[in-house]
Amino acid sequence: MNAESPTVTSPIAAPAPTHVTSELLAQHSITPDEYERILGALDRTPSLTELGIYSVMWSEHCSYKSSKVHLKRLPTKSDRVVQGPGENAGIIDVGDGWGCAFKIESHNHPSFIEPFQGAATGVGGILRDIFTMGARPLARAAALRPATRPCAAASS
User: Fold this and answer.
1) Residue 6 has what DSSP assignment?
2) In angstroms, how far is CA 85 from the centroid of its own chain?
3) How far apart (Å, rounded) are the C-alpha atoms in residues 103 and 118?
4) One of 19, 28, 61, 109 is an active-site residue; which one?
5) Which of 47-51, 56-60, 120-124 is predicted most confidently?
6) Helices marked H in 7-155 — which ranges?
7) Whole-angstrom distance, CA of residue 97 vs CA of residue 57
8) How far apart, in whole angstroms, are the C-alpha atoms of residue 95 and residue 44?
9) Helix (H) or strand (E) holding 100
10) Of 19, 28, 107, 109, which one is the catalytic site residue?
11) Cβ–Cβ under 8 Å, residues 68 and 59
């Protein structure tokens, strides 16, 4: 049976835009420097679908474009660090054979990325990453609050 396979058109193989404009890059939140990196990696003009994929994968949601520099300043090494930063929750040795898994998430509500479903995504990600470390949730804290809400002060 030497029948030819039918031709399948892939959206990734779709023709590249004839001219990638600064407006198109801005719509995808891709900087000119990032676009040069894309051109270097592909050695050709990306298709519209590929540009969209880069846009998503290099977004704040996925790659922490604006916050990575600040997150890298947090301490991550110690004799008590059992599991440092990564895909899942970090684990700290709290003594007597106990460990504590910590996880933070960038998808809390309200979020610039997803202003309505962001909270559910955040909580789901936090719990998933704690479960994957073999731990069970004990408490969940919501560190975000409206800036106009007054803080309670302890009185002496």
Assistant:
1) P
2) 13
3) 16
4) 61
5) 47-51
6) 22-27, 32-42, 48-57, 60-63, 68-71, 118-131
7) 39
8) 55
9) strand 98-102
10) 107
11) no
3-state secondary structure of 148: coil
Q: Rounded distance, CA 78 to CA 80, Å?
A: 5
Amino acid at 78: S
Kindly state the tokens that stand for 109: 């509500």
At 124, list the tokens: 């789901």
Q: Is 107 a catalytic residue?
A: yes
pLDDT in tens, 57-77: 887 767 777 777 877 887 788
Give per-residue pLDDT as tens, 74-101: 778 899 998 887 777 888 899 998 888 8
Any catalytic annotation for residue 61?
yes
Report CA dihedral (69, 74, 79, 85) to the nearest 10 degrees: -60
Phi, psi of 35 (to 5 degrees): -65, -40
Q: What's the whole-model pTM score?
A: 0.50
Instruction: Concatenate the DSSP letters of all residues of 66-95 into one string.
Output: TTHHHHTTS----TTEEE-SSSS-EEEEEE
